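Amino Acid Chain and Its Fold in Token Form
===========================================
Scope: a single protein chain, as residues and as a discrete description of its fold.
Amino acid sequence: labelled as such and written in the usual single-letter residue code.
Position: the record begins directly beneath this header, with no further notes in between.
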Amino acid sequence: MTGIELFTAPRLVELLGSGDESAVVFALAMALGWTVVALGSAATGRVTRLSGGQARAGAVLRLVHGASALLMAVVGGPAALVAGYLAGQFVHGTANVVHYALVHRLVDGSRRATILSAHSLAARGGGTVAAVGLGALASGAGPAAALAVAALLLAAGAPLYRAAGRAVAAA
């Protein structure tokens, strides 16, 4: 998510050629994006049922989230970039619900607060490392390259959801 959050606006500047125009487009996309996140959250039950369970949904959503970031990296126009951004926001809303549902199923109540705190710290640390690394990459190769690497990082977590599903089944 760090890559999407950091490099959508610079990618729009690349595509539109105007900082002022891209700021307006990005502001509207972000405003709509929060609604789309909520719609994604609301669709979680249906997505989970269609994909065959939480673990499979988590894996598929990681891949789709990566694909949306990759779309943002390779598109040639602002409309497609915004479409990729909104698709990623929908998936983000859905994936978070699935993710935390699996965490809650895997960790008993006596340790859940500790695990969620450690999870939050790990996410912040990972976001910081990603921001530095992707920022350095974007400085040399541009925001599209940073978005492409972010896409790979998002998709790389997919197998972990399958492992979590096996752990839930074994419990």
Observations:
- The chain has a mean pLDDT of 94.
- Helices lie at 2-16, 19-42, 44-51, 54-74, 78-106, 109-141, 143-156, 158-170.
